[in-house]
Amino acid sequence: MLEPEHPPGGPHRAEPAGDGPTPSTAATRFVADVERALEDPQTARRLSLAGVRARIDVTDAGEAVTLLLDRFPPQVLLGTGSQEPTVRLAVGSDDLDSMLAEGSHLPMAILAGDVVFEGSVRKLLRVLPILRAAVDAVRFARDDDPSA
Fold first, then answer.
1. Contact 89, 57 (CB under 8 A)
2. Alpha helices, H only, the chain
3. Which residue in 16, 46, 96, 97 is a FRET match for 37, CA 20 to 30 A apart?
4. Cβ atoms of 58 and 64 closer than 8 Å
């Protein structure tokens, strides 16, 4: 299994607060936000052209998220999925939570050793801004909705 050079709680990451989100909450929230983003037909069409299957191992939670951006409609799954990924990332819950946040820089986390990868990470990095913008719109709408 891939292991980050700087594991969660190491010198490059603050310890999470005791009452912060649990790791499974980060994975569940990630999947829910991406699912909502994929409901937009234009976003789904653009991402389906990426030709990438990404498995994201959440190292401190023992969970995985799978992005299937090689089909229409694209899919996101909680778990490893049944197909071999074209890229695999190992991240902590904090990195998963911020991966699609504005101002987050996955390439810098990779260079710092906080996120480890195998495979064609460039394919994922190429479409990450599209996914990030769509998820950002979903999060903005959710945060702006008083009934949520």
1. yes
2. 23-37, 41-48, 93-98, 106-112, 121-144
3. 16
4. yes
**Gap between the Cα atoms of 141 and 148, Å rounded:** 9
pLDDT at 5: 47
CATH class of 23-141: alpha beta
Query: Would you say how long the chain is, in residues?
Result: 148
What stretches of 71-114 show up as alpha helix (H) in DSSP? 93-98, 106-112
Taking the alpha carbons at both ends of the chain, their separation in whole angstroms is 37
Lowest mean pLDDT, pick from 26-30, 83-87, 122-126, 144-148: 144-148
75 band by pLDDT with thresholds 50, 70 and 90:
very high
CA distances from 117 to 39, 90, 122, 138 (A): 28, 6, 10, 27
Residues 92 and 26: their CA atoms lie apart, in Å, by 10
- Report the sign of the C-alpha dihedral through residues 112, 116, 120, 124, in that order: negative
Residue 68: pLDDT over 50? yes
Q: Where are the domains of the chain?
A: 23-141
Asked if 23 and 101 count as a contact pair (C-beta separation under 8 A), the reply is no
